[in-house]
Design a protein that fits this description.
It contains 11 helices and 17 strands. It is α/β, with parallel strands linked by helices and 368 residues long. It folds into 2 domains: 201 residues, Quinone Oxidoreductase, Chain A, domain 1 (Alpha-Beta Complex), CATH 3.90.180.10; 136 residues, NAD(P)-binding Rossmann-like Domain (Rossmann fold). The strands form 4 sheets. Strands 3, 4, 5, 8, 9, 16 and 17 form a 7-stranded mixed beta sheet that branches. It has a 6-stranded parallel beta sheet with strand order 12-11-10-13-14-15, sandwiched between helices. It has a two-stranded antiparallel sheet with strand order 1-2. Helix 4 packs across helix 5 and helix 4 packs across helix 10. The protein is globular, with a radius of gyration of 20 Å.
């Protein structure tokens, strides 16, 4: 492939509102280091990390969820020094975007040139040496380094996972972040055949993927969402859909399961946290990977103590998890949930749509 010296890219200038995202059509094309490959990007999906990092929501001084205003305009109380998922400083300018699908256009000197032309998606967790679960030994693609809101990106060869698929680039770009997150979330909670799983945030990218992963394990799924999304979520295989705005949410969950549930998976937090915990059975398991409705929750510690509950967080994924999960894409056991696509130059518009959370699945930008 002929690689141009310059490319299109959307650059994040700093923390703040959508005005910090600037489109360029003459940004320098990166060159791969010795252990890297250069990817010609076909599409790149959006995820909550893009919004959280841009607004510095990860800062401990921010106590709200990602509201419409906060997601679009940023948070005045945010501390830039705590702007990343690991509460460390991000350097700018930065190209965001963790969810890349495309082809290898060039390779570094230590990479087998036969990989040129391979169709790939990128594993967004860039593990270093040492213990994989420590934040200092892990970087996130499109966060601590440049990502995929551009025509090209250079990434470590091991993170460019080759796969065979008839899916479009836009469909494949719905997977990387949601697949790593959902598989890790499910793995931590370990639902068993016949168990009841309730999923908060069921209609988003992580939620729809978690639904499929739980069903593959033989579990039964209750989705928490809005009534307008009921038919699609039932079509994905959920046994029931519970209205997230219900004043009797805990009781509604128990009614759907005809008793308490075994597992609660949560990417929402906020006001949904307490009903999820209340609906768990004795020795139930709760696993979370996000708090888009707010990180500050009220909690009766007696639930944890006297019900012998298990709480787990799911952020840094184990090495190899993504590559194994990609086999589910190749074999057709996981279906993409593509909600909408936008051209790269309309990334701001795509993020506005993403923030409203009215979609089911994931939103991507394409490089066509």
């Amino acid at each position: 492939m002929t690689v141009p010296n310059h490319m299109r890219a959307v650059i994040l200038k700093g923390h703040g509102g959508l005005d910090q995202l600037v489109y360029h059509d003459d940004w320098p094309t990166p060159e791969p280091k010795s252990d890297e490959v250069l990817i010609k990007i076909g599409a790149c999906g959006l995820n909550n990390t893009d919004i959280n990092t841009r607004t510095a929501w990860y800062s401990k001084t921010v106590r709200d969820g990602i509201t419409d205003a906060g997601g679009k305009d940023g948070f005045g109380e945010a501390e830039a020094a705590q702007g990343s998922w690991s509460n460390t400083k991000i350097t700018f300018p930065r190209i965001q975007g963790a969810d890349v699908a495309g082809r290898i256009a060039a390779v570094g000197r230590d990479v087998d040139p036969s990989r040129i032309g391979d169709r790939i998606i990128i594993d967004p967790w860039l593990h270093g040496h040492g213990e994989w679960h420590l934040a200092e030994n892990a970087r996130y693609f499109g966060s601590e380094c440049d990502g995929g809101f551009a025509d090209y990106v250079a990434v470590r060869a091991a993170n460019a996972v080759t796969l065979q698929s008839d899916l479009t680039d836009a469909e494949l770009a719905t997977f990387p972040t949601v697949l790593t997150t959902a598989e890790h979330l499910v793995w931590r909670a370990n639902p068993q055949p016949g168990e009841w799983v309730v999923i908060a945030g069921a209609s988003g990218g992580v939620g729809t993927t978690a639904i499929q992963l739980c069903l593959l394990r033989g579990a039964r799924v209750i989705a928490i969402s809005t009534p307008q999304k009921t038919d699609i979520l039932l079509g994905l295989g959920c046994t029931a859909v519970v209205d997230r705005a219900s004043p009797t949410l805990e009781d509604d969950i128990r009614d759907a399961a005809i008793g308490p549930v075994d597992v609660a998976l949560d990417v929402v937090g906020g006001a949904l946290f307490a009903p999820l915990i209340g609906a768990l059975r004795q020795r139930g398991r709760y696993s979370t990977s996000g708090a888009i409705a707010g990180p500050m929750v009220e909690f009766d510690l007696r639930h944890l103590i006297y019900k012998d509950l298990q709480f787990t967080g799911a952020t840094i994924t184990p090495p190899g998890l993504f590559a194994r999960a990609c086999r589910l894409i190749e074999t057709g056991q996981l279906a993409p949930q593509l909600a909408a696509s936008f051209p790269l130059k309309d990334l701001v518009r795509a993020q506005e749509a993403f923030i409203t959370k009215s979609h089911i699945g994931n939103i991507v930008v394409t490089m066509e």
